[in-house]
Amino acid sequence: MEPRTGAVNQLLLSACITELAALRFTPAGLPAIDLRLEHESMHVEAGQGRQVKAALKAVAFASVAERLAQLPLGSHWRFQGFLANPRNGKHPVLHITEFQQD
């Protein structure tokens, strides 16, 4: 399957950092960090209020990884990035490309 021109894969998520691994380096020498994010909010769906909870794995590289490594567990941020399945996994992982205080 070839990548589609104009296809969109972008995610914006407000979440709490619940796990933050130690900064590591890829075989190419890029800084990388793995983390787990948790989100909780209220939404209206089909005319009814619904409490939403979601947890997902995330990863960041280069300067974004170095900045994330400085953050405390339990802090809330707004993350931006894209979803991709890891080579050996079935569940999508958020690749964080930017973040800011929520």
Automatic annotation (TrEMBL):
InterPro entries: NA-bd_OB-fold, Primosome_PriB/ssb, Prisomal_replication_PriB. It comes from the Bacteria. Keywords: DNA replication, DNA-binding, Primosome. GO terms for cellular component: primosome complex. NCBIfam families: PriB_gamma. Belongs to the PriB family. This is Replication restart protein PriB. It comes from Xenophilus arseniciresistens. The lineage of its organism: Bacteria, Pseudomonadati, Pseudomonadota, Betaproteobacteria, Burkholderiales. The gene is priB.
